[in-house]
Design goal:
This protein has 232 residues and is α/β, with parallel strands linked by helices. It folds into two domains: 3-66, Hypothetical PUA domain-like, domain 1 (Ribosomal Protein L25, Chain P, Beta Barrel); 76-230, Alpha/beta knot. Helices cover 31% and strands 25% of the residues. It is built from seven helices and 13 strands. Strands 6, 7, 8, 9, 10, 11, 12 and 13 form an eight-stranded parallel beta sheet that branches. A five-stranded mixed beta sheet has the order 1-3-4-5-2. β7, α3 and β8 (140-141) form a beta-alpha-beta unit. α2 packs parallel to α3 (119-132) and α2 (86-99) packs parallel to α7 (216-230). The protein is elongated and about 60 Å long.
Length: 232
């Protein structure tokens, strides 16, 4: 199954751009009448037949449409402090997309070691992971914002702030199956005490994910896996 990301698809016929056309013909070696699959990244999966195998402008004809393909019964939003080594965040985005995540917000906290990210590169990683894992929903990468600005927004879901503390309950003990959820993951230096207070003022519940201390990207991926397993 070859999946292509086509966010601008609107009609029963579609033409790939030159880059995707070259990938289709020269890399995948697809030819006229071969079957391919397309998605708009919003849950729609299209089954299509290749009608033109021109390496500069491939065209397809939609022959079947599936709505809400592999739709999950919950929405997972992770707000995470970008790591100093950006490779770790890239790894997290790839794996979280494969497991199933709907929204990611990079947040800048007091102890953050990185203030900026290259959104274009991160979005490419998300898209590639979506295609590789045959997903029809593409996770949304929001703009980077400060912890303070993030707190003042309204989120109609269960809300948790994950940090290491022996007295915290485990995420798996408090999360309600089938509920939308937002989880905050701090930097390597963890959240500042004032940030924890602010989060609790905004109805975020403190949780643990395990008895050990984890790197930022490991903690974030563990939360994704926990929510995924509970909802299976």
């Amino acid at each position: 199954m070859n999946l292509f990301y086509t966010p601008d698809i609107e009609t029963e016929t579609y033409s790939f751009n030159e880059e995707e056309s070259a990938h289709c013909v020269k890399v995948l070696r697809l030819r006229k009448d071969d079957i391919v699959f397309l998605t708009n990244g919003k849950g729609v999966l299209y089954k299509a037949k290749l009608t033109d195998d021109n390496k500069k402008c491939c065209s397809v004809q939609i022959i079947e449409t599936t709505i809400d393909y592999k739709k999950k019964n919950y929405q997972l939003h992770v707000a995470i402090a970008p790591t100093k080594n950006i490779d770790r965040i890239e790894w997290f985005l790839e794996k979280a997309t494969e497991i199933g995540i709907h929204e990611i917000t990079p947040i800048i906290t007091k102890h953050s070691e990185r203030k900026n990210i290259q959104a274009e590169r991160l979005n490419k990683i998300i898209t590639a992971a979506m295609k590789q894992s045959l997903q029809a929903y593409r996770p949304i990468l929001n703009q980077t914002c400060s912890f303070t600005d993030f707190m003042v927004k309204d989120y109609l879901c269960e809300k948790y702030i994950c940090h290491y503390h022996s007295n915290n309950k485990y995420l798996k003990e408090v999360y309600t199956k089938n509920k939308n959820v937002l989880i905050l993951i701090g930097p390597e230096g963890d959240f500042d005490e004032n940030e924890l207070i602010k989060a609790k003022e905004h109805q975020f519940q403190e949780v643990n994910i395990g008895d050990d201390r984890y790197r930022t990207e490991t903690a974030a991926l563990m939360t994704c896996h926990t929510i995924h397993l509970i909802n299976q």
